[in-house]
């Protein structure tokens, strides 16, 4: 299912993933070179979500996770400010499309 509304994205994050074990894969691209990407993968629980406006007419999505060692992992990514294709959600796998990053949460 395609997700195009910010409210729906937040609803899925808090309703289906908050305080649930998931595998998180975060990919970030260097703005200077499309070939330069950083990938982080870990297991954890989503413990906080915040969506705010930023000065570039986009939105900042802040995701807080508790990893397997109960350490806090903070991921901040910019997502489109307009309600366009923000994410997909299928069979327990949520893929969020950011401006220069992508995150996948899988149960």
Name the beta content range: over 45%
Distance between the termini: 16 Å
Number of helices: 1
Kindly provide the name of the CATH class: Mainly Beta
The chain-level mean pLDDT equals: 94
Low-confidence stretches: none
Number of strands: 8
Largest sheet: 8 strands, antiparallel
Overall spatial form? globular
Series of secondary-structure elements, N-terminal to C-terminal: EHEEEEEEE
Looking at the overall shape, the CATH architecture is: Distorted Sandwich
CATH topology: Protein Yojf, Chain: A
From the helix content, strand content and strand pairing, which structural class follows? mainly beta
Helix fraction, binned, reads 10-25%
Number of domains: 1
Lateral arrangement of strands in the main beta sheet: 1-6-7-8-2-3-4-5
What's the gyration radius in Å? 13 Å
Summary?
This protein has 107 residues and is mainly beta.
Topology, please?
Blueprint: E1 2-3, H1 6-17, E2 21-29, E3 37-53, E4 59-67, E5 72-79, E6 87-90, E7 93-97, E8 101-106
Description:
By secondary structure, the chain is mainly β. The chain has one domain (2-106): Protein Yojf, Chain: A, CATH 2.70.180. It contains 1 helix and 8 strands. The chain has one helix at residues 6-17, and strands at residues 2-3, 21-29, 37-53, 59-67, 72-79, 87-90, 93-97, 101-106. An 8-stranded antiparallel β-sheet has the order 1-6-7-8-2-3-4-5. It is globular and about 35 Å long. The mean pLDDT is 94.
């Amino acid at each position: 299912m395609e997700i195009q509304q910010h409210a729906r994205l937040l609803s899925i994050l808090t309703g289906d993933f908050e305080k649930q074990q998931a595998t998180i894969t975060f990919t970030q691209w260097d703005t200077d070179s499309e070939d330069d990407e950083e990938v982080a993968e870990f297991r954890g629980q989503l413990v906080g979500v915040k969506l705010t406006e930023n000065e570039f007419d986009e939105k900042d999505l802040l995701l807080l996770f508790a990893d397997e060692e109960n350490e806090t992992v903070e991921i901040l990514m910019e997502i489109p400010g307009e309600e366009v294709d923000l994410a997909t959600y299928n069979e327990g796998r949520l893929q969020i499309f950011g401006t220069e990053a992508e995150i996948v949460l899988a149960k």
